[in-house]
Amino acid sequence: MVGLALSYALSVTGRLSGVITSFTETEKQMVAVERQVYYINNVPQERIAPSGDFQLREEWPSRGSVEFKRVSLRYRPNLPLDLNEVSFKLAPGEKVGVVGRTGSGKSSLVLTLFCMTPITGGAVYIDGININKVPLHILRSKMVIIPQDPFLFSGSWRSNLDPEGNVGDDAIFWRAVERCVLRSSLENMGGLDANVGERGRRLSVGQRQLLCLARALLRDVQIVCLDEATANVDRASDELIQETIKKNFSGRTVLTIAHRVETVLGSDKVLVMDGGRVAEFDSPENLLSDQRSLFAQLVQKSGCQRSADV
Predict the structure, then answer these.
(1) Which helix (H) or strand (E) holds 282?
(2) Which domains, ranges and CATH numbers included, belong to the chain?
(3) Contact 254, 66 (CB under 8 A)
(4) By mean pLDDT, which of 86-100, 107-121, 124-138, 199-213 is the weakest?
(5) Residue 101: closest CA among 242, 234, 290, 275
(6) pLDDT band at 56 (very low <50, low <70, confident <90, very high)
(7) Going by fewer Cβ within 10 Å, which terminus of the chain is more open, N or C?
């Protein structure tokens, strides 16, 4: 009996180790469930639809005008204002570049425009309509944003160009790709059904941004936002992307948050942000003519020279 007890006692140690390992793995896997429950119960939910009987025209926005009226924004109640009574207006089809030092509030403008963060005060109007009255799924479907890091799906060119499957004619895809100088790259990879790799790993960073531009062309919207879209590409790719935007988004309102100052020299107007406020808002020519302006100082510090054709 003693020998039998000893033999079983030795095996219990190994089995107990397996139980502890299984318990630890279960605890690790439940962290994801715990986080989901926390976000569901404690994080404020986005508004889905406005209250009341608000009617919106199906063709809205038809012009693409954008107006910020005394907009203030803070990300948490105990933090200072990131946007402090910001007011400016973008005319339909106007190309506006946004510059400023780090933390001046440039990216907060785009977050406000897409209602990613509730504003503290003021209002944003698109074609005269307060965007707080527009359902989020409609508002965000009427604009396009091209972020600093191009987002691609692990799949074919076709699924990345048209994730929702709204385009049925291959000729439309090829026209958009050709307008974004990607036709040769697409043909070399095997056509629209060729796989771009995991999150577009088979493409360079510049090609990924151009593919995002082609996706924006297929959406055919009136408002396009570029949030430092050329920050991770070289100067030659930057120039190619800017030329593509200039050719293919004529007549659309384009808001460009610039990483390089020379990116916005060809814009209709330049918005200079400083400390969450609008410091300057005028054409590049007028701002550069005043050597004391913040924009002129930024251009001088960057060492870029304004070309004659801008």
Answers:
(1) strand 277-282
(2) 66-302 (3.40.50.300)
(3) no
(4) 199-213
(5) 275
(6) confident
(7) N
